[in-house]
Amino acid sequence: MAAQGSYPDTGRTVDTMGKDLERLKQRTPLLEYLQRHHWTGHQVSARSEFVGLCPLHEETHPSFYVNPQKNLFYCHGCAQGGDLIRFVELTRHLSFCQSVAYLEEELAPTNQLLHHTAAFYQLELRRYPEGIEYVVKRGVHDPHLIEALGIGYARGGNLRPHLQNLGYSLERLLEAGLIGPQGRDAFCRRVIFPCRYSDRIVNFYGRSIGRAFPHRLLPRSKGGLFAWESVRQFRDVILVEGLFDLAVLWQAGFRNTTCAIGTHLTPLQLDQLRENSDRCVYIAFDQDENQAGQNAADALLHCLEQAGLHVRIVSLPASHDPNSYFLAGASAEDFAHLLEEAPSL
Ligand SMILES: [Zn+2]
How far is CA 9 from CA 83, 239, 290, 329, in A? Predict the structure, then answer.
C-alpha cells in the first residue's frame, strides 16, 4: 500500500480540477478498476448492477454493489459508497487529492517519473565534470544543442534518494526499470539521452563513459524515431545508427537527422518515415570493417523501398561513422558532398 503523501503534487489549479476529475473517472471506469484489482462480481439479473464481496469490510455474503452506468458503488454491509476516487480514498487511506494523484499516476505511471529523472540527469551533467568531458570528447560542444537534446549524466548511486524525496516509491522505480532488482541504478557512469514519443519521455539511452557495455536502454519501448516531432517536417531525412552521430550532425546544421538507436526499424518507426510518401531517406550507417553497418544498411534499404520510400546510401570513408567523421575534421560541406554523392538505388 502507498504511504500518505507519496505522490507528487500535480500542480493543478482548482479551476481545471473539475473537468480533469470527470475525464479521469471516464478513463478508468470503476468496474474496470475493481476487476483489475481482482474484485469479482456477478451481474444482478435483470439489472445492470454487479454484486460481490466487499473489499472494504470482512464478509461472507456479497453486499457490495457496483453500478457501471452511474460509475458508483454501494455496500449494504458497511454503508460505504461513492465513486472511484472515494473507493481509492477508502482502500488506500489517502486524502482526496492524493487519491486523484494516485489514479493519475496509475494511468500514466511512468511519464512524470521519467520527466523528473531526465531533469535530474541534466542537473548531474552540470555537477560532475566527467559527463560533459565525455560529450565534448565525442565532438558535441554547443551548449544550446546539449540543452535542446536534453543530454544528461547518470553518475549512479544518487537517483533513488532524489526520486524518493520527490515522493516516488521504490516499487515505482523498480517497475520503471530505473533501479535494478539489486537496488542499483540502471544507469551508472553513462551519458543520457531522453527518448521521446509525442513529446513525452518514454525511455533513456545511456552511453557508457567507462568500461561497461556501451549501449543501454530501459527495458521498455524506445518509442518512435528520435526527435521525430521536429524531424518529421523535412521531406528528406538522414537516418543514423547512434545518438552521437545525430548530435554532431545537428550541430553541423543537419537538423533533418533522426535515429532508430541501432540499425533496425520497428513498425512504428517505419510508419513514421512513410508519413510523407515523397520522402527520401539517406542511410548514414557505420562503415564497419566487418561490413556490419553496410549489411544493415542494405537490409534496411530493401525494407524501405518495399514501403515505397526513396532511399540513398551515404558512403562514409572506411571505418568511420558520422560521429568519427566529424571528429576527424570533416566539415558540414564535406558531409553535404557525401549526401550529394549518395547513389539513389
Ligand atoms: Zn462493505
Answer: 22, 39, 52, 49
